[in-house]
Design a protein that fits this description.
The protein is of the alpha+beta class. It has helices at residues 2-11, 13-51, 76-81, 183-191, 195-207, 219-227, 246-257, 264-275, 277-307, 310-318, 323-356, 365-391, and strands at residues 55-58, 72-73, 86-101, 104-113, 129-130, 139-143, 153-156, 159-167, 178-182, 232-233, 235-240, 260-263. It is elongated, with a radius of gyration of 31 Å.
């Protein structure tokens, strides 16, 4: 039976190889789609790991700072830092935008970090080139995925920054490379209005009778001055002292500071369970469609090959060949076609699709094993139509026509 299937494959090897390559491209896309989802989850975990925080303190009743917008006064961190259970607390801002560079721009997550040096929550944990930010203005550290190089001048809003350091795998949950700048600069980029908007706001304030009280001198000037400051951040990153449970500290902040606090597990659930959920459903639908298309291709090819061997099958039946031998012959051909496709698909996904795809693709061995099992099952099920056609062949056809 094995030599029969093998000889038949060798007889029509060209059709098998080209069909297997076409099927392999579909399988390669399927494996890449699974890798894209794994990459999205890994990006979310990398984002949390790079924060180096146990707790995320955000605006009350929001899912910030990644899934929703969040705004806190930048002095909140002092009240949290003074808690006996807290080891370190640091402000942070996040702003996804187009970062300008000579010759084009790059989509990036601009992250504002507080002074303090490496080890401060929010700072990049390591660099692959250059140094960390040492000045309070106009220096930046960027992920190498941004394409920036040491010494490059980039533009964020109205200011220009010099790239002084490069890091790796510091990305947002969407896979955008991160660019780290001083917190004050990030606050200005995110919250400060342009000059025309500031002038218009000051004009409206000056015309408001509530701020022009004769008995309260200086009130108007104080209001205008407050409008020119940027006292907001997106979150406070908190690192808990050893020996304290993060959930207990989070509950204490919720009760006494009247803020929303998330632990690492809760923040991961927000990123993976909510922020990536829609993309996960889309990828799952693509996987289902690709599986159906692959099944249809295998079924059609095996059925066509079987119909082309009706006379041979009739002769085998006339010679007394058992049905299980014919079934095994067809099924082995189908599985062989699937194996060729899987090998081509695995190679194309690893060497071609994953390296050039714009998002991070994480190909895990377990996904490959599951994909191999799925391919074998699809090939077995797809051969049923051809098997039914073969079993209906009348041995008399070997003598007739």
């Amino acid at each position: 039976m094995i030599s029969l299937a093998g000889r038949d494959i060798l007889h029509s090897w060209g059709k098998f190889v080209f069909t297997g390559m076409g099927l392999g491209l579909l399988i390669g896309v399927t494996l890449s789609m699974a890798g894209i989802y794994r990459g999205m989850v890994d990006d979310a975990k990398v984002l949390l790991d790079s924060s180096d925080a146990d707790l995320w303190v955000v605006q009350k009743d929001t899912l910030g700072p990644y899934a929703e917008s969040s705004s806190l006064y930048d002095d909140v961190w002092r009240r949290i830092r003074d808690m006996p259970e807290v080891e370190r607390a640091a402000n942070i801002t996040y702003l996804t935008m187009q970062v300008g560079k000579q010759g084009g721009d790059v989509r990036a997550m601009v992250t504002g970090i507080t002074p303090g040096g490496p080890g401060t929550p929010g700072w990049p944990p390591y660099l692959v080139a250059g140094r960390h930010i040492t000045r309070s203005h106009y220096e930046a550290v960027a992920d190498i995925a941004s394409g920036f190089k040491l010494g490059d001048r980039i533009k964020i809003r109205r200011n220009h920054y010099t790239i002084v350091g490069l890091t790796r795998r510091m990305v947002s949950s969407n896979g955008d490379p991160m660019v780290f700048i001083p917190l004050k600069d990030a606050q200005e980029a995110q919250f400060l209005k342009d000059n025309d908007a500031i002038w218009e706001q000051r004009r409206r304030t000056a015309e408001n009778p509530a701020f022009n009280r004769p008995g309260v001198p200086g009130l108007l000037d104080a209001v205008i001055a407050s409008q020119s400051t940027n006292p907001y951040v997106n979150a406070v990153l908190v690192r808990v002292k050893p020996g304290y449970a993060p959930e207990e500290v989070a509950e204490s902040i919720r009760r006494w500071k009247r803020l929303t606090v998330y632990t690492r597990s809760q923040m991961e659930e927000i990123l993976v369970g909510k922020l990536i959920a829609t993309s996960a459903r889309q990828i799952f639908m693509f996987l289902v469609i690709l599986s159906i298309v692959s099944s249809a291709i295998v079924a059609f090819i095996i059925y066509t090959l079987t119909l082309g061997k009706i006379r041979e099958i009739a002769v085998l039946k006339l010679l007394g060949t058992k049905n299980r031998t014919i079934v095994g012959w067809i099924m082995q051909q189908s599985i062989a076609l699937g194996l060729i496709g899987f090998v081509v698909g695995k190679i194309s996904a690893t060497l071609l699709m994953a390296p050039i795809f714009p998002k991070y693709v994480l190909l895990q061995p377990l996904d490959s094993v599951m994909g191999f099992i799925a391919v074998v099952m699809i090939c077995v099920l797809s051969s049923i139509i051809a098997i039914r056609a073969a079993l209906r062949v009348d041995p008399a056809e070997a003598i007739g026509g």
